[in-house]
Amino acid sequence: MAAAGFPTVGRYRGGESAAGSAANAGEAEHGNNGRGENPNADEAAARAVCKIVSLPPAKPVLTREQRIAQEIAQERQALARLRAQLAQARQQGKVNVVQQITVQILDREGNIAALQQEMRR
Fold first, then answer.
1. How many angstroms separate the CA atoms of 104 and 117, rounded?
2. 72: Cβ contacts below 8 Å, ≥ 6 apart
3. What is the per-residue pLDDT across 54-64, written as a single tens digit (0 to 9) for each?
4. Which residue, of 5, 8, 26, 54, is most buried by count of CB atoms within 10 Å of its CB?
């Protein structure tokens, strides 16, 4: 049954398509969807897919002061590691490494000073 001159495509509740209503009639009598499955299988699959999953707790939002304090603590830890590396490089007599680490130490100390100044603002 074509409406307004358009061909019918697929099966509709109001009528059958032109592609074999006799083949589909046997399926309708047995209540399956043409694939030999349970007619309620789609509903069961939809329920199985829609599991509710709880989300992990959100990270606490830090204040500006807390973030700066955290960064200062990280810079101090990095500075302590660099000082230990500097002492080891001096013992081994590695002049180039000593110079590189000294530059990194000065950089970390400058970062700490800038963060402390930012904290006072």
1. 20
2. 112, 115, 116, 119
3. 888 888 888 99
4. 8
pTM here is 0.52
**Length of the chain, please?**
121
Cβ atoms < 10 Å from Cβ of 101: 20
Q: CB-based burial of residue 96 (10 Å sphere; 0-12 exposed, 13-18 middle, 19+ buried)? A: exposed
107 exposed, middle or buried (CB, 10 Å; 0-12, 13-18, 19+)? middle
- What pLDDT score does 91 carry? 95
Ordered DSSP codes for 52-103: --PPPPPPPPPPHHHHHHHHHHHHHHHHHHHHHHHHHHHHHT-HHHHHHHHH
Q: How many Å apart are CA 40 and CA 37, to the nearest integer?
A: 8
